[in-house]
From TrEMBL:
Keyword Transcription regulation included in the entry's annotation: no
GO molecular function: acyl-CoA dehydrogenase activity; flavin adenine dinucleotide binding
PANTHER family per the UniProt record, alphabetical: ACYL-COA DEHYDROGENASE, ISOVALERYL-COA DEHYDROGENASE, MITOCHONDRIAL-RELATED
Keyword Flavoprotein: yes
Gene3D superfamilies: Acyl-CoA dehydrogenase/oxidase, N-terminal domain, Butyryl-CoA Dehydrogenase, subunit A, domain 2, Butyryl-CoA Dehydrogenase, subunit A, domain 3
Family per record: Belongs to the acyl-CoA dehydrogenase family.
Pfam families named in the record: Acyl-CoA_dh_1 (PF00441), Acyl-CoA_dh_M (PF02770)
Protein name, UniProt field: Acyl-CoA dehydrogenase
InterPro entries hit by this protein: Acyl-CoA_Oxase/DH_mid-dom (IPR006091), Acyl-CoA_Oxase/DH_mid-dom_sf (IPR046373), AcylCo_DH-like_C (IPR036250), AcylCo_DH/oxidase_C (IPR009075), AcylCoA_DH/ox_N_sf (IPR037069), AcylCoA_DH/oxidase_NM_dom_sf (IPR009100)
Source lineage: Bacteria, Bacillati, Actinomycetota, Actinomycetes, Micromonosporales
Domain annotation Acyl-CoA dehydrogenase/oxidase C-terminal: ranges: 235-373
Length: 384
């Protein structure tokens, strides 16, 4: 994609972001607004990543349809939207992370079932991996898929699932056999007996409405198992790893959008600075630009090879730290009572803390970076 195309795409996204700003604080106070007003004023279908056959009116740049089906397109667009409200971006109806698993594993019938459900009306989906006591460690996963006559029963609990309480269907990872290769992904409708979802109270990104899912002998069939036609090495955890690699640049761009929003707020609200404060702002401006370039490079790398998440890990680590630093320091720069006088800054500060726990914590990213370096996938590593 040319630089001119991405510049025009960013400009379009920035114009659309203005639609999210008026509802940002309302959504923070009342997450149900995401359902009563899908998209919070944004034409959600254009930003949901729907395939061409289900998206008759996509976003267009210079007459070219943009389906947001590449990581590069997503990080450019979603960063601009996140400058207005990252929580609203994550609360948009549509496929989200589950679409990556569908693309990698689903057969034709499962693809049709999924996309026809998602595209017909505002529909939320979920991606359920994390468990209360074991996080996302596949070796310790307790959710099970067991044979029950000719069918199956799904049993277990998932936690910290975005949009879980408002979703109509989603992807659940469960253990069918021992070991990491025994983990499979299943497509689950939320109206099945034994499935319940409850919202969790959170400090930041409240619009996302993180949820806990409980599944007590949820009845499933062979047709609900994704990738059942594939070998065990290319089923559940294979697809999950590729999904994490694809979405770490997306989380990075959301964190970057929050960081940029906090920077913008400071320079808008203050006119006079000490010398050290001017140096600080100049440093932030340079680091924002550098992180933006890293996120874009990570997106290009993942589009080229979803198996390699090295740059994606670097981008997520850097963007998350930058968002936390800028939002925290912005409170000091705007003086006593800043969080009270600037409720949007208070929201940005709370939202910034959430990205550390999305698609792997900082330590996970460091391990991925170390592995990539040892395997020769990084030729130049600098601290910072």
């Amino acid at each position: 994609m040319s630089t001119d195309f991405l510049t025009d795409l960013r400009a379009q996204a920035r114009a659309h972001a203005d639609l999210l700003r008026p509802t940002a604080l309302d959504l923070d106070r009342n997450p149900d607004l995401a359902v009563s007003a899908p998209g919070c004023g944004l034409p959600w279908r254009r930003f949901a990543g729907l395939p061409a056959e289900y998206n008759p009116d996509p976003l267009r740049v210079d007459g070219r349809p943009v389906l947001l089906d590449t990581c590069v397109e997503r990080v450019v667009v979603l960063e601009e939207l996140a400058r207005a409200d990252a929580a609203a971006v994550l609360a948009l109806p549509g496929p989200s992370m589950s679409a990556s698993v569908i693309a990698d594993l689903a057969d034709d019938d499962q693809q049709q079932r999924y996309w026809e459900t998602v595209a017909t009306e505002p529909t939320w989906t979920f991606f359920a991996m994390t468990e209360p006591a074991h996080g996302s460690d596949p070796g310790s996963m307790h959710t099970t898929l067991r044979r029950h006559g000719d069918d199956f029963r799904l049993h277990g609990t998932k936690r910290y699932v975005g949009n879980g309480v408002r979703s109509r269907l989603g992807v659940v990872f469960a253990r069918r056999n021992a070991g990491p290769l025994g983990v499979v992904a299943v497509l689950v409708d939320t109206d099945l007996p034994g499935f319940t979802a409850a919202p969790l109270s959170t400090l930041g990104l409240r619009g996302l409405q993180l949820s806990e899912l409980r599944m007590v002998d949820v009845p499933l069939t062979e047709a609900d198992i994704l990738g059942r036609q594939r070998s065990a090495t290319r089923q559940g955890m294979w697809a999950a790893t590729r999904t994490f690699n694809r979405y770490r640049p997306v989380v990075s761009c959301l964190a970057l959008g929050v960081a940029q929003a906090a920077y913008d707020l400071v320079v808008t609200q203050r006119r006079r600075y000490r010398t050290d404060e001017r140096h600080l702002l100049t440093g932030w401006e340079q680091r924002l630009a550098g992180t933006r370039a890293l996120v874009l490079a990570a997106a290009r790398a993942v589009d080229a090879d979803p198996r390699d998440g090295t740059l994606a890990a670097a981008a997520k680590l850097r963007a998350t730290r930058l968002a936390e630093e800028i939002t925290t320091t912005a409170v000091r720069l705007l003086g006593p009572g800043a969080r009270w006088e600037h409720p949007m800054l208070d929201k940005l500060l709370r939202d910034a803390r959430a990205f550390e726990f999305m698609e792997g914590t900082g330590n996970i990213q460091r391990l991925t970076l170390a592995e990539g370096y040892l395997q020769g996938r990084l030729t130049d590593v600098r601290a910072g």
